[in-house]
C-alpha cells in the first residue's frame, strides 16, 4: 500500500510541475512537425518495405500520431531500452524487450521521443546493424539543442527544444505527464 501512496504523492507533484512548467511547443506545432516528418520519411523509405521500430515508452505517443501519416506499406515493431527508468538523468542502458521481427536485409526506421545525448539511439542503431539491417534511420520527435559527438544525430527530427528537461507528448516527468499534448520544459 505504501508504494501506491508514494505514486499518489508523486502524481500530485507532477501536477504542480506542470502548473509551473514553460510551454515550449503547442499541440499545433507538434502536429505540423509530424506532417513534415511523415513526408520526409515517406520520400526516404516509402519503397523500401521498412520496419518502423518504436522505442518504448517515450516514443509511444509520437508513433501513435506519426504512423497514420505514413502512406506506404510498413511493418511495426518495438524495442524497450532505457537509460532513465523514471529518473531525470540517464544512466546505463537497460534492454527490456525486443525487437521481435527479423531485421536482416531490411530498412529500419527507429522512432524515439527525444535526441538528447544520442547514446541510446546510437546503441539501438548499432545493435540493429549488427543483426543485419540494411539501413537504420533515426527519427525523433524532438532534438535537444546541445553539442554531441559526430554521428549521434537523427536523420529526421520534428522540433528543437532547449537544453533543459522537457516532457509531454510521450516524454515523461518522473514517469508521469507523457499524456500531455504539448511539450513543456522545467523552469
Structure write-up:
- It is a single chain.
- With 187 residues, the protein is an alpha/beta fold.
- It has one domain (2-185): 3-Layer(aba) Sandwich (Rossmann fold).
- It has 4 helices and 9 strands; from the N terminus they run αβαβαβββαββββ.
- It has helices at residues 2-20, 27-45, 60-66, 119-130; strands at residues 22-25, 51-56, 75-82, 94-97, 107-115, 135-144, 156-161, 166-167, 183-185.
- The strands form 2 sheets. Strands 4-3-2-5-6-7 form a 6-stranded mixed β-sheet.
- Strand 2, helix 3 (60-66) and strand 3 (75-82) form a beta-alpha-beta unit.
- The model has no long low-confidence stretch (mean pLDDT 91).
Draw up the topology in text:
Blueprint: H1 2-20, E1 22-25, H2 27-45, E2 51-56, H3 60-66, E3 75-82, E4 94-97, E5 107-115, H4 119-130, E6 135-144, E7 156-161, E8 166-167, E9 183-185
Parallel strand pairs: 2-3, 2-5, 5-6, 6-7
Antiparallel strand pairs: 1-9, 3-4, 8-9
Key attributes of the depicted protein:
187 residues; alpha/beta; Rossmann fold; 6-stranded mixed β-sheet; 3-stranded antiparallel β-sheet; 4 helices
Amino acid at each position: 500500500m505504501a508504494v501506491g501512496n508514494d505514486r499518489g504523492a508523486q502524481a500530485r507533484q507532477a501536477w504542480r510541475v506542470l502548473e509551473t512548467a514553460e510551454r515550449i511547443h503547442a499541440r499545433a506545432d507538434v502536429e505540423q512537425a509530424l506532417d513534415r516528418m511523415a513526408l520526409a520519411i515517406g520520400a526516404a523509405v516509402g519503397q523500401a518495405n521498412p520496419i518502423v521500430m518504436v522505442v518504448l515508452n517515450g516514443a509511444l505517443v509520437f508513433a501513435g500520431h506519426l504512423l497514420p501519416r505514413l502512406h506506404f506499406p510498413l511493418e511495426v515493431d518495438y524495442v524497450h531500452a532505457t537509460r532513465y527508468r523514471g529518473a531525470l538523468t540517464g544512466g546505463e542502458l537497460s534492454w527490456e524487450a525486443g525487437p521481435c521481427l527479423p531485421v536482416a536485409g531490411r530498412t529500419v526506421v527507429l522512432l524515439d521521443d527525444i535526441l538528447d545525448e544520442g547514446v541510446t539511439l546510437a546503441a539501438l542503431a548499432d545493435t540493429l546493424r549488427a543483426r543485419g539491417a540494411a539501413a537504420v534511420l533515426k527519427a525523433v520527435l524532438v532534438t535537444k539543442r546541445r553539442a554531441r559527438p559526430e554521428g549521434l544525430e537523427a536523420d529526421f527530427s520534428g522540433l528543437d527544444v532547449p537544453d533543459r528537461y522537457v516532457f509531454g507528448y510521450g516524454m515523461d516527468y518522473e514517469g508521469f505527464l507523457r499524456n500531455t499534448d504539448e511539450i513543456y520544459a522545467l523552469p
